[in-house]
Specification:
Helix content is 81%, strand content 0%. The chain is mostly helical.
């Protein structure tokens, strides 16, 4: 079992399977079929992801960059923009009310750090020579 997901699924169904299918060979065959179905579902999802990425519409193919830009802008506003704007407001326009404080910073950081982690993995792929560009050249 190369994928942790398959092991997790089998661990969940193993105890009821032992009661439902007492024959070891039948149970192993069923587990094998279950593994194949999980792998097929993963392959189908990969095909959907490829189709999304190749779609000409920015609303289909651009959701990942959109999330990156939103996180970057929100992070910039939270740590730089808000303070600079408040300083300028107080220095030049003290009668204008303060801008709203950005809420949900924990969620923002979770999403942003996850995306940065994926970017780090992409860098490692490029350094090891297994990036998408190299992969396409071999096909």
């Amino acid at each position: 079992m190369g994928l942790p997901l398959i092991g997790t699924i089998l661990d969940i169904v193993r105890a009821p399977l032992e009661r439902l299918i007492p024959d070891k060979n039948e149970r192993r065959r069923f587990e094998h079929d279950l593994e194949l179905e999980v792998l097929r579902a993963g392959l189908a999802q990969m095909e959907v992801n490829k189709a999304e990425a190749n779609h000409p519409s920015i609303f289909v193919a651009g959701w990942r960059p959109f999330v990156g830009w939103v996180c970057g802008i929100a992070l910039g506003w939270h740590f730089i923009g808000h303070d600079v704007f408040n300083w300028a407001r107080l220095a030049f326009f003290p009668h204008i009310p303060a801008p709203p404080q950005l809420a949900g910073t924990e969620t923002l950081m979770t999403v942003l750090l996850s995306m940065l982690g994926l970017g780090g993995l992409r860098t490692v792929e490029k350094l090891k020579g297994v990036s998408r560009e190299k992969w396409r050249e071999t096909k």
